[in-house]
Predict the structure of SDR family oxidoreductase.
Amino acid sequence: MTRLANKSALITGSTSGIGRAIAERFAAEGATVIVSGRRADLGAEVVRGIVAAGGRASFVPADLNAGAAAIEELAATVGTVDILVNNAAYLIGGRATPETPEDVVDAALSTNIKAPYLLTAALAPKMRTGGSGAIVNIGSINALTGMAGTALYSATKAALHAMTAAWAAEFGPHGIRVNTIAPGPTDVEWSTHLRPMLERMVSTVPSGRLAQAAEVAAAAAFLASDEALHIHGATLPVDGGLTAVTAHGALAHTSA
Ligand SMILES: NC(=O)c1ccc[n+]([C@@H]2O[C@H](COP(=O)([O-])OP(=O)(O)OC[C@H]3O[C@@H](n4cnc5c(N)ncnc54)[C@H](OP(=O)(O)O)[C@@H]3O)[C@@H](O)[C@H]2O)c1
């Protein structure tokens, strides 16, 4: 499929995990992809893989926890894009609220709320109107389901979900669609050490397994493509049915 031919896309946090899978999928669908993150070695590796597969990609380094100037620099380097995926996040893991230090609170708010807000503010006005502009926010089922140890992370993801709805109202009339994907527990590099716990958790949900990053990427490609032209402000869970069948508070800890 080449649903993203002639489109350019910035995917934040695409040096690993879900963001990397989105960059690879978008490139395979014909997009010119801008890979971004702090780890330049991994960014270069992602770009090499995409180019070797016949795609187009470049790497732009950015620390989204470094304040407005860093985000402005990223936006200026990138210029104009058709698609923005706000994927990068400060992943806190399970952490009791009384044991969460202020610097972790600041980093989570800065990376997960301030950065996508400022980046969208900088890039959305330059996107093509007429329906081809698209923003995909990578939220989380944690924004939808209460789980012990995730209050801070969940709050930042809920903020991103709320931004999606407000941006759908703000940018939709200009032909820019904004949607959220809410992944459930997804099998990525960092979650390896949590796998036994995650697998116990997902054994109770319809799919009975973790998501693959490529499955989240497939949903992102759909939402970014013109096949989703009439989809604005939606939240698409990619969670094997977890949020549909799990009562609030039933889970002790989650992945991210
Ligand atoms: N895996 C799951 O189970 C799961 C479930 C629900 C939602 N999610 C969401 O999916 C998204 C991707 O997470 P993942 O699981 O794929 O984890 P990951 O592999 O650790 O990816 C996180 C990405 O964010 C980037 N990042 C983190 N802090 C950054 C900063 N200060 N500046 C720039 N980039 C930064 C990292 O790149 P650098 O380190 O190179 O900067 C990395 O590429 C996140 O939004 C996460 O909340 C994941």
Q: What stands out?
A: The pocket of NAP is lined by residues 13-19, 37-39, 42, 62-65, 87-91, 111, 138, 140, 183, 185-186, 188-191, 255-256 (CB under 6 Å). The longest strand covers residues 176-183. Strands lie at 8-11, 32-37, 56-61, 83-86, 133-138, 176-183, 186-187, 211-212, 235-238.
